[in-house]
Here is the input.
Amino acid sequence: MLNEFKTFIAKGNVMDMAVGIIIGAAFTAIVTSLVGDLINPIIGLLSGGVDFTNNYAVLAGEVPAGASLDAAREAGASIFAYGAFIMAVINFLIIAFVVFMLVKMVNKVKDAAMKEEEAAPEAPKGPTAEELLAEIRDALKANA
Here is the structure.
Protein backbone atom coordinates (compact mmCIF):
# COMPACT_ATOMS: atom_id res chain seq x y z
CA MET A 1 0.00 0.00 0.00
CA LEU A 2 2.89 2.35 0.77
CA ASN A 3 4.41 1.62 -2.64
CA GLU A 4 1.10 2.41 -4.34
CA PHE A 5 1.00 5.74 -2.49
CA LYS A 6 4.58 6.53 -3.56
CA THR A 7 3.69 5.72 -7.16
CA PHE A 8 0.59 7.93 -7.00
CA ILE A 9 2.52 10.86 -5.52
CA ALA A 10 5.38 10.47 -7.99
CA LYS A 11 3.06 10.76 -11.01
CA GLY A 12 3.69 13.93 -12.98
CA ASN A 13 0.16 15.30 -12.87
CA VAL A 14 -0.01 15.11 -9.06
CA MET A 15 3.29 16.95 -8.71
CA ASP A 16 2.18 19.55 -11.28
CA MET A 17 -1.03 20.07 -9.34
CA ALA A 18 0.87 20.50 -6.08
CA VAL A 19 3.19 23.08 -7.64
CA GLY A 20 0.15 24.86 -9.10
CA ILE A 21 -1.55 25.02 -5.70
CA ILE A 22 1.57 26.43 -4.04
CA ILE A 23 2.07 29.04 -6.75
CA GLY A 24 -1.66 29.82 -6.65
CA ALA A 25 -1.49 30.47 -2.91
CA ALA A 26 1.46 32.82 -3.37
CA PHE A 27 -0.29 34.50 -6.31
CA THR A 28 -3.43 34.97 -4.18
CA ALA A 29 -1.42 37.03 -1.71
CA ILE A 30 -0.12 39.23 -4.54
CA VAL A 31 -3.57 39.74 -6.07
CA THR A 32 -5.13 40.42 -2.66
CA SER A 33 -2.50 43.06 -1.98
CA LEU A 34 -3.02 44.54 -5.45
CA VAL A 35 -6.75 44.83 -4.85
CA GLY A 36 -6.58 45.96 -1.22
CA ASP A 37 -3.61 48.32 -1.46
CA LEU A 38 -3.87 49.73 -4.99
CA ILE A 39 -7.25 49.20 -6.64
CA ASN A 40 -9.67 49.66 -3.72
CA PRO A 41 -8.23 53.06 -2.70
CA ILE A 42 -8.63 54.29 -6.29
CA ILE A 43 -12.22 53.04 -6.37
CA GLY A 44 -12.78 54.71 -3.00
CA LEU A 45 -11.54 58.02 -4.45
CA LEU A 46 -13.71 57.69 -7.54
CA SER A 47 -16.83 56.70 -5.58
CA GLY A 48 -16.44 59.33 -2.88
CA GLY A 49 -15.01 57.00 -0.23
CA VAL A 50 -17.85 54.48 -0.28
CA ASP A 51 -17.10 51.57 2.06
CA PHE A 52 -19.89 49.18 2.95
CA THR A 53 -17.85 47.15 5.42
CA ASN A 54 -19.44 48.64 8.55
CA ASN A 55 -23.04 48.37 7.31
CA TYR A 56 -24.97 45.78 9.26
CA ALA A 57 -28.35 45.08 10.81
CA VAL A 58 -28.75 43.97 14.40
CA LEU A 59 -30.84 40.81 14.59
CA ALA A 60 -30.65 40.30 18.36
CA GLY A 61 -28.79 41.94 21.21
CA GLU A 62 -27.75 45.45 22.20
CA VAL A 63 -25.28 47.50 20.15
CA PRO A 64 -24.38 51.15 20.87
CA ALA A 65 -25.60 53.52 18.16
CA GLY A 66 -23.03 54.11 15.42
CA ALA A 67 -20.81 51.24 16.54
CA SER A 68 -18.51 49.67 13.98
CA LEU A 69 -18.96 46.10 12.77
CA ASP A 70 -16.11 44.91 15.00
CA ALA A 71 -17.62 46.66 18.03
CA ALA A 72 -21.01 45.07 17.32
CA ARG A 73 -19.40 41.64 17.09
CA GLU A 74 -17.48 42.22 20.33
CA ALA A 75 -20.73 43.22 22.05
CA GLY A 76 -21.97 39.69 21.31
CA ALA A 77 -24.93 40.83 19.25
CA SER A 78 -26.33 38.70 16.48
CA ILE A 79 -25.76 40.78 13.37
CA PHE A 80 -26.48 40.54 9.66
CA ALA A 81 -23.25 41.92 8.14
CA TYR A 82 -24.52 42.70 4.65
CA GLY A 83 -21.90 45.42 4.11
CA ALA A 84 -18.98 43.05 4.61
CA PHE A 85 -20.62 40.65 2.16
CA ILE A 86 -21.08 43.41 -0.44
CA MET A 87 -17.40 44.38 -0.09
CA ALA A 88 -16.38 40.71 -0.41
CA VAL A 89 -18.40 40.43 -3.65
CA ILE A 90 -16.85 43.65 -5.00
CA ASN A 91 -13.35 42.42 -4.09
CA PHE A 92 -14.09 39.07 -5.75
CA LEU A 93 -15.21 40.76 -8.96
CA ILE A 94 -12.11 42.96 -8.98
CA ILE A 95 -9.81 39.98 -8.32
CA ALA A 96 -11.57 37.90 -10.99
CA PHE A 97 -11.15 40.74 -13.52
CA VAL A 98 -7.45 41.18 -12.67
CA VAL A 99 -6.83 37.44 -13.00
CA PHE A 100 -8.76 37.41 -16.30
CA MET A 101 -6.58 40.24 -17.63
CA LEU A 102 -3.39 38.44 -16.52
CA VAL A 103 -4.46 35.16 -18.15
CA LYS A 104 -5.43 37.04 -21.31
CA MET A 105 -2.00 38.71 -21.41
CA VAL A 106 -0.16 35.40 -20.84
CA ASN A 107 -2.21 33.72 -23.59
CA LYS A 108 -1.42 36.59 -25.98
CA VAL A 109 2.31 36.22 -25.27
CA LYS A 110 2.10 32.45 -25.77
CA ASP A 111 0.22 32.88 -29.05
CA ALA A 112 2.80 35.38 -30.29
CA ALA A 113 5.61 32.97 -29.41
CA MET A 114 3.83 30.13 -31.23
CA LYS A 115 3.33 32.28 -34.34
CA GLU A 116 7.01 33.26 -34.33
CA GLU A 117 7.95 29.58 -34.15
CA GLU A 118 5.64 28.72 -37.03
CA ALA A 119 6.73 31.71 -39.14
CA ALA A 120 10.46 31.10 -38.66
CA PRO A 121 11.85 29.91 -41.98
CA GLU A 122 13.57 26.60 -41.93
CA ALA A 123 17.29 26.60 -42.53
CA PRO A 124 18.11 25.53 -46.07
CA LYS A 125 18.91 21.88 -46.11
CA GLY A 126 21.68 20.33 -48.10
CA PRO A 127 21.07 17.85 -50.87
CA THR A 128 19.63 14.48 -49.95
CA ALA A 129 21.59 11.27 -50.27
CA GLU A 130 19.67 10.41 -53.44
CA GLU A 131 20.54 13.78 -55.00
CA LEU A 132 24.22 13.35 -54.14
CA LEU A 133 24.25 9.85 -55.61
CA ALA A 134 22.56 11.15 -58.77
CA GLU A 135 25.21 13.88 -59.11
CA ILE A 136 28.01 11.33 -58.63
CA ARG A 137 26.41 9.05 -61.23
CA ASP A 138 26.09 11.92 -63.70
CA ALA A 139 29.69 13.00 -63.09
CA LEU A 140 30.91 9.44 -63.63
CA LYS A 141 28.90 9.21 -66.87
CA ALA A 142 30.32 12.49 -68.11
CA ASN A 143 33.92 11.37 -67.41
CA ALA A 144 33.45 7.96 -68.99
